[in-house]
Design a protein that fits this description.
CATH architecture of chain B: Alpha-Beta Barrel
CATH topology of chain B: TIM Barrel
Number of strands of chain A: 14
Radius of gyration of chain B: 17 Å
Radius of gyration of chain A: 19 Å
CATH architecture of the largest domain in chain A: 3-Layer(aba) Sandwich
Largest sheet of chain B: 9 strands, parallel
Number of domains of chain A: 2
Shape of chain A: globular
Largest sheet of chain A: 6 strands, mixed
CATH topology of the largest domain in chain A: Rossmann fold
Number of domains of chain B: 1
Strand order of the largest sheet of chain A: 3-4-14-9-10-13
Structural class of chain B: alpha/beta
Order of helices and strands of chain B: HEHEHHEHHEHEEHEHEHEHH
Number of strands of chain B: 9
Order of helices and strands of chain A: EEHHEHEHEHEHHEHEHHEHEHEEHEHHEH
CATH class of the largest domain in chain A: Alpha Beta
Strand order of the largest sheet of chain B: 5-4-3-2-1-9-8-7-6
CATH superfamily of chain B: Aldolase class I
Number of helices of chain A: 16
Oligomer: heterodimer
Distance between the termini of chain B: 36 Å
Helix content of chain B: 40-55%
Strand content of chain B: 5-15%
Chain lengths: ~400, ~280
């Protein structure tokens, strides 16, 4: 925390490290594939054709750029900062996940991989993967924890309609971590033909870098759009953090704009007092190694991973992308946590005031905005990433509110 | 520095037979049964003992070994207890090589330097840590080697000719050839393919090569052993432990006996194969 880097945007190093974090902690069977993927990504990065194709897909298939919307009534209601939503919930498939999936499927095609696998928590990534797999005619298998299958039923059906095979994972508590274990096992067993589309900015190098790069379009658009709207850059950025892909997507372009305050909002579940009852790995965990990278993890004193809990399936993960861990330690980003209850209240507030039903994931970011905005002056430009829409959550929210449908 | 592993493989080479390497998870289904089994393994014919350090998220393991890890953790197994088990084993056996196998996080948290020190003091001979590839060698491999532990690396069907030297570079004790692209105990390896791969590895190293990940029966072990220096059997042993559990998770009194019986038949199979081959 003492030495401030000249730039926060140069990582990772050539071995995939963001300071202490990141790396390539995988079994030998996967190591040659990881190296092959890294090479393919390095080649694609400098290939104008790759970027042109991706740009076209993002625009005409994904619906980019997503609007930057001034949330006038929420701003009035909270009385403070001027609140903008980056509306990535309007993307095709309803979240920011499509940005990354279009990038990775293009890589899979370059690498001539004929089968796609993925893990999913809330099902937003699973739906985005199933969508791009359908679009390019590739068979697709999605691993999803059985707890999540229950609470995100609409997305399960969407994936099936799109032609994906959804495999329920019963191990552990049947959430995102267990789905990721199972996807990794599938990959090890099908190394020759399979491309693993990881949904968040975590996993072994080059995934954290690659997913961040594909999501960074969010922040790049905000920069341009805010200049158009207000003639200057934003003052405050807020995004929710599970693995942290939407957040790093918003933050990355602004990391070196040192006057901008940046907040990542973790899932505080039932409160940070008990490690079983939240998913705030950076507020309540410690560094460890899981799923191919070193990062903050919820774990016990013996290094066993703790399942955690969140109302939001998409944030219900005991780890976080390694770049966030590094940004936490350097102090560049402030990582806070909000509870299930606060997220649920923000969900309802936004729906009523703005006519936008947010997913439970960005409802966490919204909950922090409701606390933060009133403390800021009216000329403070605050951007919150509305990274997913809440259609998938309405049944779960109804149940939580005790409403029979 | 010669370790128990080096000595044992050299002796077996002289005898002209492959080593039987057994895998069980420390603390599965409970500490006492697991320790009793550990103590009984050498007499039953285990030449090298691999003991799993239970982890909540064993990514390279199939359902049987995942379940064994869960049972051990549920019964209260910790890294300290695993090392205590090794200490108790060493009180009665100073010859049989013992290798700890597992995942990095519990070692990282221990932390690494203390873990290596405690391993040496307890009588551990080597480590197999699935998720620390050569690219991350300075984390654990180099300090372990310097301290005098063997660091046994996995080579797999995806380890091609270009990569093999990287894998072999800091490996000691023996090379563990993973006979299938997959997780433990799921697919059956094809002996002819395995033989070719083992030959390829042996052309690049003086180290013994043991083969594992899909070997379950004495017949398979015999077929795989041909051309290799050792065969690893784990899932089949762990499944016996699982089958002896009652609904409350309590294990049957004859569990150790049943596991050692399979170990004996596996060992007999390896011995007779070499006898046949010698004739």
């Amino acid at each position: 925390m003492s030495d401030t880097p000249n730039s926060y945007r140069t990582g990772p190093d050539e071995r995939g490290h963001f300071g202490l974090y990141g790396g390539r902690f995988v079994a030998e069977t996967l190591m040659p594939l990881i190296l092959e993927l890294e090479q393919a990504y390095e080649d694609a990065k400098v290939d104008p054709e790759f970027h042109a194709e991706l740009k076209s897909l993002l625009a005409h298939y994904g619906g980019r750029p997503s609007p930057l919307y001034y949330a006038e009534r929420l701003t009035e209601h909270l009385g403070g900062a001027k609140i903008y939503f980056k509306r990535d919930e309007l993307n095709h498939t309803g979240s920011h996940k499509i940005n990354n999936c279009l990038g990775q499927i293009q890589l899979a095609r370059r690498m001539k991989k004929g089968r796609i696998i993925a893990e999913t928590g809330a099902g937003q990534h699973g739906v985005a993967v199933a969508t791009v797999a359908a679009r390019f005619g590739l068979p697709c298998v999605v691993y999803m924890g059985c707890t999540d299958i229950e609470r995100q039923a609409p997305n399960v059906f969407r994936m099936k309609l799109l032609g994906a095979e959804v495999i329920p994972v019963t191990a552990g508590s049947g959430t995102l971590k267990d789905a990721m274990n199972e996807a990794l096992r599938d990959w090890v067993a099908n190394v020759d033909d399979t491309f693993y589309i990881i949904g968040t900015a975590a996993g072994p190098h080059p995934y954290p870098e690659m997913v961040r790069d594909f999501q960074s379009i969010i922040g790049q658009e905000v920069r341009t759009q805010m200049m158009e709207a207000e003639g200057r850059l934003p003052d405050t950025l807020v995004a929710c953090i599970g693995g942290g892909s939407n957040a790093i997507g918003l933050f990355h372009d602004f990391l070196d704009d040192k006057d901008i305050a940046i907040f990542g909002v973790e899932a505080g579940g039932l409160g940070l007092g008990n490690p079983d009852e939240h998913c705030a790995s950076m507020n309540g965990g410690k560094p460890g190694v899981l799923h191919g990278n070193r990062t903050y993890l919820l774990q016990d004193d013996d290094g066993q991973i703790i399942e955690g809990h969140s109302i939001s399936a998409g944030l219900d993960y005991p780890g976080v992308g390694p770049e966030h861990s590094w940004l936490r330690d350097t102090g560049r980003v402030n990582y806070v946590a909000v509870t299930d209850k606060e997220a649920l209240e923000a969900f309802q507030l936004c729906t009523r005031l703005e006519g936008i039903i947010p997913a439970l994931e960005p409802s966490h970011a919204l909950a922090h905005v409701t606390k933060l905005a009133p403390t800021l002056p009216a000329d403070n430009l605050l951007v919150m990433n509305m990274c997913g829409r809440g259609d998938k959550d309405v049944f779960a929210v109804a149940a939580l509110l005790g409403v029979e449908m | 520095m010669t370790t128990r592993i080096d000595t044992r493989f050299a002796a077996l080479k002289k005898d002209g037979r492959a080593a039987l390497v057994t895998f069980t998870t420390a603390g599965d289904p409970d500490y006492d049964t697991s320790l009793a089994l550990l103590k009984a393994l050498p007499a039953a014919g285990a030449d090298v003992i691999e003991m799993g350090m239970p982890f909540s998220d064993p990514m390279a393991d199939g359902p049987a070994i995942q379940a064994s890890s869960q049972r051990a953790l549920k019964a209260g197994q910790t890294m300290k207890k695993t090392l205590q088990m090794v200490r108790e084993f060493r009180e009665g056996d100073n010859d049989t090589p013992l290798v700890l196998m597992g995942y990095y996080n519990p070692i990282y948290i221990y932390p690494v330097d203390d873990f290596i020190k405690d391993c040496l003091e307890a009588g551990v001979d080597g480590l197999i840590v699935v998720d620390v590839p050569p690219e991350e060698d300075e984390e654990l491999c180099i300090p372990a080697l310097k301290a005098g532990l063997n660091f046994i690396r996995l080579a797999t069907p995806t380890t091609d000719a270009k990569r093999l030297p990287t894998v072999l570079q800091n490996t000691s004790g023996f090379v563990y050839y993973v006979s299938i692209a997959g997780i433990t105990g799921t697919k059956a390896p094809d002996p002819s393919k395995v033989h070719a791969q083992v030959a390829r590895i042996k052309s690049q190293t003086e180290l013994p090569v043991a083969v594992g990940f899909g070997v379950q029966t004495p017949a398979q072990a015999r077929a795989i052993a041909d051309g290799a220096d050792g065969v690893v059997v784990g899932t089949a042993l762990v499944k016996i432990i699982e089958s002896g559990l009652d609904d409350a998770g309590k294990c049957a009194p004859d569990t150790v006996e049943k596991v050692t019986k399979l170990v004996r038949s596996l060992a007999d199979g390896l011995t007779s194969s070499e006898t046949v081959a010698a004739k």
